[in-house]
Design a protein that fits this description.
- The protein is an all-alpha fold.
- Helix 11 (about 190-205) runs antiparallel to helix 12 (about 215-234).
- It is globular.
- The longest helix has 25 residues, at about 135-155.
- The chain is about 75% helix and about 0% strand.
């Protein structure tokens, strides 16, 4: 069973000063309003966030529905967007795995992998015994997941009072928060060089290939950061 002590400790992590709760909630308020505007009812909007739990994936799904894309195309597009979570999973799971914990916890906890929850866990895992980290992580994930669902409900209900400019402002709060968190995490040469180069190469690649600029910028920045870190370690 889940250790409730560590579960609630993780759940209450949203109360910290660097919590993503407000930014995450604001972004999903925009998502809730957007889903209503494209014809979703309240139950469908909640179920969408319940399953997707990712801001970019929800935006891609909504935009694809607006232009009338086939269901298969929407599935592939959302799947590709959410593939960005794979590196987070690879870096996080070794910190959580303990032989005393059952596998079902790890299967369950995979749904909670998102930038917001990942940042909280990476910042706090050293303060939690490895045996109990998976319970702490499930608490963190449940908290951020709940905020996303509540934000979706609020956005759906208040959509008539949100104009286009307000929705755009709400949607970009979360990315701005993530950028600030990443800057705060610039404590190693790998992370620092990756963030700085990414900020430079992303816009630079835009003039070459607007559709792939973020992917190429991130790939090259991350690769350079990795090798700089490896060289520095040696």
């Amino acid at each position: 069973m889940i250790n409730l002590k560590y579960f609630f400790r993780g759940f209450k992590s949203l109360k910290s000063l660097d919590s993503p709760a407000l930014a995450l909630g604001a972004s999903f308020i925009a998502i809730g309003a957007l889903l209503k505007n494209i014809g979703f009812n309240l139950e469908q909007s909640i179920f969408s966030t319940f399953l997707t739990y990712a801001l970019p994936g929800s935006l891609v799904m909504a935009e694809s529905l607006i232009i009338g894309a086939p269901l298969l195309n929407i599935f592939i597009a959302v799947w590709l967007v959410n593939a960005r979570l794979y590196p987070m999973t690879v870096s996080l799971m070794p910190l959580l795995i303990h032989e005393s914990q059952p596998r079902w916890k790890y299967y369950l906890s995979c749904h909670f992998v998102a930038v917001s929850a990942w940042l909280i866990m990476k910042s706090n895992y050293q303060n939690v015994n490895k045996e109990n980290r998976i319970d702490y992580w499930i608490g963190v994930g449940t908290a951020t997941w709940s905020i996303a669902i509540i934000g979706t409900i609020i956005g759906f209900i208040t959509s008539d009072y949100l104009n286009k400019d307000i929705m755009i402002a709400l949607a970009i709060i979360n990315p701005v928060y993530f950028m600030c968190m990443m800057i705060g995490a610039m404590k190693t040469i790998q992370i620092s060089s990756s963030i700085i180069l990414g900020a430079i190469l992303g816009p630079a690649f835009y003039f070459i290939t607007p559709e792939w600029c973020i992917l190429f910028g991130g790939f090259f920045a991350g690769t350079v950061g990795y090798f700089l870190g490896a060289k520095n370690d040696n």
